[in-house]
Write a structure and sequence with these properties.
Blueprint lengths: L2 E4 L7 E11 L2 E7 L8 E6 L10 E3 L3 H14 L7
Antiparallel strand pairs: 1-2, 2-3, 3-4, 4-5
Length: about 80
């Protein structure tokens, strides 16, 4: 399982495990969790970086409409999980 480091401004870096990724409407999304195994809170992150940037820049998806739509896609991809 891939691991990424999320570096929020003025905060300590946090490591996340990437459970799945998908592209919707030209936007790249990843589903991440802090623990590699077991039940854990999950976040959906959206790549907001420009194509010419050397590293991806992700932000947490907070818009309810967007979050519900992307969560439904991840639930279909990963049939054994439920995001709520």
């Amino acid at each position: 399982m891939d691991k990424i480091i999320f570096k929020p401004e003025n905060e300590e870096p946090v490591e996340f495990y990437v459970l799945e990724q998908t592209k919707i409407g030209g936007c790249q999304y990843i589903l991440v969790t802090e623990q590699e195994e077991g039940d854990s809170d999950a976040l959906i992150l959206k790549d907001i970086s420009a194509p010419e940037e050397p590293e991806a820049i992700y932000e947490i998806v907070e818009d309810d409409t967007e979050l519900n739509a992307v969560a439904a896609v991840f639930e279909n991809i990963l049939e054994d999980i439920e995001l709520s």
